[in-house]
Amino acid sequence: MAKKRFVQIYYAGVFEQQRVYVDTLTGVNYLLLICNTNNMGSGLTVLLDADGKPVVTPLDEIDHLAIKGDD
Fold first, then answer.
1. 21, 46, 65, 68: which one has the fewest Cβ atoms less than 10 Å from its Cβ?
2. Edge-first strand listing for the sheet containing 6-12
């Protein structure tokens, strides 16, 4: 099976979900917010550090951080 382009490394919430995905080619982290209350919608953005730069996970750490069973 081909390696997935994005893997989920963080998940929280039920009705208002926060998820973090990592691009397996670049290591860049993305924050996905989903509001399941009254079909409010969702938003996706690059996750930034305190200096305003993208959070980048080292490529050799991604498999260790990936949430298992996220297929």
1. 68
2. 6-12, 16-23, 29-35, 41-46
Q: At 48, which amino acid appears?
A: L
Q: How far apart are CA 17 and CA 49, in angstroms?
A: 20
Total domain count for the chain? 1
Asked whether residue 71 is domain-assigned, the answer is: no
Which of 32, 35, 25 shows the shortest CA–CA distance to 57? 25
Instruction: Quote the domain boundaries for residue 12.
Output: 6-65
Phi and psi torsions of 2, nearest 5°: -70, 150
**Average pLDDT, whole number, for the chain?**
91
pTM above threshold 0.70: yes
Per-residue pLDDT band for 39 (boundaries 50, 70, 90) equals confident
